[in-house]
Amino acid sequence: MADDKYFDLEIITPDRIFWTGKASMLELNTSEGQVGIYKRHIPMTMILAPGIVTIHLEDGNKEAAVHAGFLEILPEKITVMAEIAEWPEEIDENRAKEAELRAARRIQTHDPKIDLSRAEVALRKSLIRQELAKRR
Amino acid sequence: MASMRDIKRRRNSIASTQQITKAMKLVSTVKLQKTKARAERSKPYFDKMYRTVASMLARSGTISHPYLNPQPSAKKAVILITSNRGLAGGYNSNVIKTVTGSGLKAEDLVLFAVGNKGKEYFQRRNYRIENEYHEAIENPIFSDAKEICDDVLRLYLSGEVGEIYLAYTYFKNTVVHEPQLLKLLPVEVPEEDIESARSNTLMNYEPREEEALEIIIPKYMTSILYGALVEAVASENGARMQAMDSATSNAEEMIGKLTLQYNRARQGSITQELTEIIAGANAV
Fold first, then answer.
1. Is the omega angle on the peptide bond into residue B186 within 30 degrees of 0, that is, cis?
2. Span A2-86: which CATH code?
3. CA distance B10 to B3
4. B207 touches chain A (CB under 8 A)
5. Contact assessment for residue B122 and residue B80, using Cβ atoms and an 8 Å cutoff
6. Number of CB atoms found within 10 A of residue A41's CB
7. B25, B81, B136, B255, B260 from B242: Cα distances, Å
């Protein structure tokens, strides 16, 4: 069967159903590293790492940025629970650049009042956004 | 009988109150539609979150983790979601009643107040209020929920509180809103949900189950809290719409009654005048 390799994919965020449909492969970053998932994967739950997800569709690929969450893999279906997900066209590149500078400055000040891990997350987010924005 | 002038003045005052309640009703109707759509949009995320956590717990019976096991501290943290403004019927007092009527001891409570009304009530009664987040209720965003959650979890992990509850108003539909007191931590999932999850396929975890649990449980809490915030806002507007609707119709009724009284008084005074004139004419 021609359409045998397609599985159901759902990307959900707290504010909306981000994307739903059939895909042949899903690439993303997890806490354990980069993975690519095909149909009929063993059931698994993984933690998302901030990064770019690539959805392989019948007619080309789709890319989006996700920043935190987890995903549940079943043989016929993958559900991605993302706290934040964005399409490239939703990203404001200037704002991301600004956020990068701000976060970098915060990390460099060594001010004990500043939450370092939070600044690092902000930095990583802004870098991912910029990378995705460049690709569009 | 009250004079015509008094009745008229009273009627005018009620008419202008009615105008206000009518306007407030319209405003909250519009807000309700907006917040209701939002609550519905975020529903799939929470349903999925709940199911995932239930299935994780179904097979993690042996794991010992602070998130799952009872804690020694008798103190209980309550996240209390009320509104910042009143005139919403029983909305706020119903939420407060779920806390005061729950059997939790006042001296054990540590409150995290979202919304001014709940805070005022408990402050007057000298409850311990750990923190306030009043902006969150105007237009809840996910990072609000995260912030509240981080604060509460810090207290939980340090052992200062042993249980975490959430008091909010569940938005069932436009006319039915149910105040609820929900236990967040240690996580308790109803037995039937665990049973149905157990029959599902065997799930693997990467990283290991304990670590995954460590990351997913706070996310689960945050998302429940966010869902509660969104639903509470929808409920608040629904409650206000109903309250203002009945206020408007009460005013309508009152105006009707007063109009009747006014007309009666008017007729009475005319009759009296006539009698006086006739009596005067007869005397001449």
1. yes
2. 2.60.15.10
3. 11
4. yes
5. yes
6. 17
7. 8, 19, 23, 20, 27
Output the pLDDT for position B262.
93
| Ranges of CATH 2.60.15.10 domains, chain A | 2-86
Could you tell me which residue, B60 or A67, shows the higher pLDDT?
A67
What is the token pair recorded at A62?
């789709």
pLDDT tens column, B195-253: 666 666 677 787 887 788 888 888 888 888 998 899 899 999 999 999 999 999 999 99
Flag if A45 and B226 touch (Cβ within 8 Å): no
Helix (H) or strand (E) holding B96: helix B91-100
Q: Are B93 and B60 in contact (CB under 8 A)?
A: no
Q: What pTM did the predictor assign?
A: 0.82
What pLDDT shows up at residue B131? 86
Query: Is there a contact between A12 and B48 if contact means CB atoms under 8 Å apart?
Result: yes
Task: Give the domains, in start order, of chain B with CATH numbers.
Answer: 43-242 (3.40.1380.10)
> Using the beta-carbon criterion (under 8 Å), do A32 and B206 form an inter-chain contact?
yes
When pLDDT is averaged across residues A87-107 and rounded to a whole number, the result is 85
pLDDT tens for A40-68 read 888 888 888 888 899 998 888 888 889 88
Chain A residues close to B223, C-beta within 8 Å: 14
What is the β-pairing status of strands A7-12 and A17-23? antiparallel
The domain A92-135 having CATH identifier 3.60.140.10: the answer here is: no
Calpha distance B170→B234 (Å, rounded): 9
Better pLDDT: B21 or B205: B21
Quote ipTM for the complex: 0.75
- Cα–Cα distance measured from residue A4 to residue B98, given in angstroms and rounded to the nearest whole number: 53
Q: Which residue from A14, A44, A47 is facing B226, i.e. has the nearest CB?
A: A14
